[in-house]
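Q: Joint fold for the lines below.
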Amino acid sequence: MALSFDAIFAKVQVRFPAAGAGSAPNGARWIEIQAAEALVVADFLKHDPDLSFDSLCCLSGIDLLKFPATEKDGPTSDALVCAYDLHSLGHRHELRLKVSAPRDRPVVPSVESVWGVAGYFEREIYDLLGVEFRGHHDLRRILTPQDWVGHPLRKDYSYPETYAGVELKREGQTFESGPYK
Amino acid sequence: MNLDREGDYITLSMGPHHPATHGVLRLEVTTDGEVIRACRPDIGYLHRSIEKIGECLEWYQFVPYTDRVDYVCSMNSNHAWVCAVESLLSSSEETRLAIPERAEYIRILFAELNRISSHMVGLGSMTMDMGAFTPFLHALSQREFINDIFEKTCGARLTYNYMCVGGLVRDLHAGAEDEIRAMLKGLEKAMIDFNRLISSNNIFRARLAGVAAVSAEDAVSYGLVGPNLRGSGVDFDLRRDKPYGIYERFQFDVPVGKAYAGADGRLGDCYDRYVVRLLEVLESIRICRQVLDQIPPASGVEDDPVGGWCVAKAAQKALRKPPVGEVYFRCENPRGETGYHIVSDGTKFPYRVKIRTGSFTAMSIFEKLVPGLMIADLVALIGSFDIVLPEVDR
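A: Joint structure:
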């Protein structure tokens, strides 16, 4: 039976009191958990018979550095966020789970033992955002070359001017991160 | 070539330029004679930073880039992106868009036609990998007819840039409905011929039966989606189970794998994935016919709520100040679930665009599935997964 977000959150909170609910102005809702708990929560979400989130649809990393605070006096965050979009084939319900990792030392436990596909998603986030997934069997860069410097999807990323002896910067070009003006 | 004295294993580099890898993919395989003991995919050769580019462009400017995420089914990629953005806009009364009815029908029609043409490439190149060249030509010649229709309507044969937030770039060309009907008739006949030519061919069937079977549990855990997931017997299709657009208005069946290859076959083997794609083409033809029966006639007025094709002004206004928040939108593409996770900070630029594609997640099962296969069967596996490399690397 498909459960509502509130019912799922209630079930998670009984087991993990530190879990909190988050929401965005457009109505999106998610469960926020401590980074250290990611693996046990994932295991619970997959194997609890009422939840049984058997598929990890998407795992995306978001850098909050330049994200404006939603409330006027709310604190701005510079954390790196991993968002797990889960789906249950049996119950046909969905859930987004979020884990924040501090920017200077982003470490999140790997969930590849729970969902096999997470191994590739985590490598991608490691490559593009620099989140370290503890317990991953083969955490290497996946899309950029192995000797690439920096993590391109971080909001403070500066593009390298040369790579492997090749000049990348052309005359008159600026490599400031962010929207083209 | 590294020879490990202990086991006499040989490490082979298959690709990046290998005819069977359908693009630029390198597989590092450790072989013991003909049998593979370990496989490490090396991807990223076609990485074009599309997600990064998405953060630097305005919402509507990103559409042509979605074409290039998966150029074999550009219409479907367009559809997924515009649906994701419209889903974000729909959360606020001020930015909600009322897409014209006719535009919704044309979107489904073109998405299904593109699904057929994509499956034609998938099926054709799979038979070619297996050594049968004629079916490839049959399949590709049918794809040309679909490309002709797309070209007449939107001017391009491969990267269409046809859908936009708010509707479509332009209406169907005059007489398109009749042309598509006639084309579908020929296509159905061609599919029957294709099926007779190759599906029950003993060599072809024996080549695929029982090869690289994926259990339903593994398929779900490793994120296989679309025909690859259904080939393993999992009955899930986003078009039916979580309809987007106006898919709930159409009747169609969802084919799933049933160990079609007979006595030698196993559920979820390469032959099952092949058959699921073949049957999906027929279902897509069914959907196209229903669309053509129900589509409201063109009114000639751009933003007419029934017969128009785009609410461009409302969309431009809405995209200047979209709601703050995030959306993960899933669409059923020919290669399975394509998801756009978009984060908006309320400006005219997306804050983050994450593209989840079926081929990328399909690559994750290789390390587990390939050991134990013969080298030649790895070619069959890649063909049956219908991997498109630009979609893997983005």
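Q: Anything notable?
A: The longest helix of chain B spans residues 101-129. Chain B touches chain A through 48 residues (CB under 8 Å).
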